[in-house]
Input
Amino acid sequence: MDHVDRLLEKSQWDLFWLPGDVRIVDRPELLFVACDRPYNYLNMVFRSLASDQELPLLIEEVSRAHRTVTSSWKVSIANRSTALEQALTAGGYEPGHMHYGRALNLQDHTPLATSDIWETKTISTTEEMKDTFRVHELAFGKQVKMTDADIEQNLRHCTGPNVRVKRAIAYHRQTGEPASSGGITFFEDLKFGFFWGGGTAPQWRGRGAYRAVVAHRVELARQWGCTHVGLYARDNTSDPIMERIGFSRHGPMTMWERSPLTISP
Output
């Protein structure tokens, strides 16, 4: 496992950003979260480093905690093995989309060139936060159910002098429409910025909006003092885009998923 793979892996273990209703189980061999709300990032296994003999018991433990929701299990280069994949299959999990680690070394990288048709901003207002969720809905084809209180909580989480999370958004200068957005989480001890939630509304794809959001987040990472930025890029969607932008490819990560075992009352 190379240096970037270690940065990506360790960045997934710092769960400071989770809301208060999420339960965290954190032991050397297992790190997972569980929540009654049916969102995959709130019901996910982030680390599993058990022996082959221990795996069935760990999978059973997670399945009990995730019995009423879809359960997600990150299988990366750090824990990928035939034994784990066989145990997950026996536990009712199926492999989902393949991702690859992608990264930029900011110590030897020149700023990304972007089109001047885009105005990129670091989100700082309620309306900008609402715009980023609108972009997310269009980009991924899924409705995001956010109350006004949820919007304000997300805004507080990424504004202020000591935050570790920021969001960027690109607006078309002529129309003012929000076109692309994405977040970045800073890990000071790793000098690393992790990219997440990047997406572009279908009508604006292929015109440089996502590249502008990437460039904006890279500059945020430079200001923070990061030496690297990276993400898990989905094969055949964001992975080829990151390759064109200049991100180096690293180890694979597959998200295994299991449907709810029981129906929530």
Remarks:
- Residues 209-224 form the longest helix (16 residues).
- The chain has seven helices and eleven strands.
- The two ends are 43 Å apart (CA to CA).
- The CA atoms of residues 24 and 48 lie 14 Å apart.
